[in-house]
Amino acid sequence: MSSSFVVAMDSSLTPPEFSGLASATTLGTNSIYLAWDSAVDDETPSEAITYNVYLATQEGEQNYDLPYESIVGSVEMTLAGLDSRTNYFIVVRAQDEDGSEESNTIGQQALTLTSYSVNVQPTLNNRCFSCHSSFGNNYGVDVSNYNNLMNSNIVVPFDASSSELSTKGNHHSSGWYNSTEQSTIDTWINEGALEN
Fold first, then answer.
1. What are the structural domain ranges in the chain?
2. What is the pTM of this model?
3. 134-174 pLDDT, tens digit each
4. CATH fold of 16-111
């Protein structure tokens, strides 16, 4: 005796078709703009598809159980509140109204800019302030705040190699910046020496 079975596929369990995150553009010290093409689903209209954003600071280490942020129906978003001077690896996945999420691992990478207030000023306060401020013999250089630093004419935005803040940073016999501090200051200058 033979019998045949018909298995009905539940189309609601089929996740959307999605090509993944198309671009990630750094906007500043703590924000990244993301863009992608709309996902397509057999039941959920495009304006109701949820896009889940997954972040990691190491490639491939996204936690796909916990999105950093989600947005419904949009093909772009700006992530805010990120750490400055941090390399982010970002994956976006599409999810339909039934909760079926596709599983792409197409990632984009973006590095947030160096922050003057978070990354540079503490080094200047620690290494330079006692001699180069309105409270010391400043020698024509005042690092007590951004405006005074820029008015001291020792920073050439976008050109660390021409900036005395970088090139004369090790003028003391004991040295001034360690390698991490030197790299941070050079990067900040080469990014435009912004007040951020």
1. 16-111, 116-190
2. 0.79
3. 776 667 888 889 999 999 999 999 999 999 988 876 565 44
4. Immunoglobulin-like (2.60.40)
